[in-house]
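Sample A.
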Amino acid sequence: MLHAMSNENKYEFIDTAQLLGEFCMLLESQPWIAVDTEFHRDQNYYPDLCLVQIGTPELSACIDPLKISDLTPLLNLFYDPNIVKVMHAGRQDLEIFYHLRGEVPQPIFDTQVAAPLLGLDEQMGYGALVKSLLNVDLDKSHSRADWMRRPMPEAQMRYALDDVVYLAQIYPKMLSQLQQLDRLGWLKNDFDTLTSVELYQNPPEKSWRRIRAANKLKPKQLSVLQALAGWREETAQKQNRPRNWVCKDDVLIDMSKLMPGDPTELSHIRGVGEGFSNRYGKTIIELISQAREKKPEALPETKFKQKLTASESALLDALSAIVGLCAEENKLHPSAIASRKNIEALFRGDPECELLHGWRKQIAGDKLNAFLSGRITLKIKEQRLILD
């Protein structure tokens, strides 16, 4: 059933396969759609998709995946290469679709990523963006709502729809401004990164890198941690449980340091309960026994960074000043171009540094490298810092 909204946009709550198919047919010829999702993942490894919102300037809908078992028409729409999927801070939304189909929808446009190129704040929240571009204050009363609840209250559904109703008004404005500034192409590298499959994969063998204390372990202990973290990740995925529900990071570290040789020793480690020991003890002991004889995977090079000298810190200050000049020239906030951490990465020669790719390289990275090689210098002219 369609309901009239004050801005003449129409919306619908879709909870049957027939309605979903009809709605998706209406959108097949659209050049773009605004997309958002609501989900829960507090008790699971993978997010539980609770609601999908889609919007255009004329029509919006809440789609109920809890009632519709076959979302094929919706996924076909999302994976249509001729339709731009417009999102705000869309990484988690894209992760959901990746797990549903094993690939990431393309092409996409993320308004949070694009906002700094228009002189807006980096990592800008959706409410702040709507206020800035449309002068609308969004209702926040349902920000902690239970999205599994059915029937869904009308006010909660309207709250969810706001995310795409206003997004469908924001996108044309942002697109026009970016085109006028000739900056739309600047976003390609960022959007390519967001739609990279590797971003949403969690290979168990790499999961140890999330554990901060890994760089404090000796080689044999690190090898054990790598094996245990991989086991935990694989177990969490198979059981669809949060990884820390299987075993917490600090317990993995203690097991890696102490390397228990039998279930009794394992049970004496703080945080290892009897239930855990009975269920996983034999597997853990075997993993430890095997891993302690293996050479560990090397720590990422960034773990070995030396503390900056006073001279190097001064040089980073100069590089930061150049970023500030580039920001002023392009009417951007310096933080949109590079953080201090990004600048240090360039200084240390990190090939993955953001300043060496895309639009950041174009407006700042090349100048920073020219300064480091002595091809340009900083000087003061008429009480202003300039690049010479």
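Sample B, a different protein:
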Amino acid sequence: MTSATPFARVLVPYDASDPARAALKLAIVLGKSGASLVIAAVVDESAIIAEASSAVAYDPTPEMDALDEEGTDLVDDAAAQCRAAGLEPVVETIHDTVVAGILELGKKHGCDLIVMGTHARSGVAHAFLGSATEGILRWGHLPVLTVRTVDRVDVLPFGSVLVAIDDSEPSDAAAALAAALTGSAGAKVTACTVVDTARVFENSTDYGFDPAELIRDMRAEAGSVVSTVLARAGLPADTPVTIAEGEPAETIIATAEERHATLIITGTHGRRGIRRFFLGSVAEHLVRTSEIPVLVVPTSKHGD
């Protein structure tokens, strides 16, 4: 099978919620393009153990057995969907907290991508959008491909890619992965950087400077940063570039829509230089609000 993705082994945490099903569906698309799949249910017994340790004559065994059974049912459900698509996944149920369990499984199986839905009900692997997704994005060393609904996961999402650029090491990693997609999947890449001008106008009156002149300087610096990042990533000099103004995450999403992008790639965090083009948890905002899949890339794609 000829691979159309740079990802060899993909981990899919699964809890049978609608977003988790969307993530599995997207992972199956990746599987049909050459990736092998690892399906996991994480059985988090910490709350039950804590209750048992503080109670007198409390037997947690029935509740723990129920969680085990639920975990087994989940991976069986996911595996059946994979097999219906002609794929044979690796399936595993582990006992751990959600974030630690997912990250450990990624290492154990040599995965190079995690695919996750961004909402989940309570249950075996709960809170994928909240603490779990946030923890994986902050502490993990693997790219995380997030998806909210099944609406955009029928085809491989690497056709038209918008890569968000700032002056940071994760941004370099995002651009490098975008470059890899041009080779393995024939992706068409557009770069986008956002100049956040909100405080420029607020401060211009207080400090008596010309906001228009400062914005011109900021745009020029942004253009220089993009050119440098693209060159380091090995992307062509004629790669289309959008330098926009506004709230970073919202502007990135709007630009992706204008460019008919099928995927947004962004770094996680960490910035260089005197000016930050992305403020706060831009990656988290993108994951929460984007209607198309978002690929969040840490500094090192392989955790080196």
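Observation for Sample B: The two ends are 28 Å apart (CA to CA).
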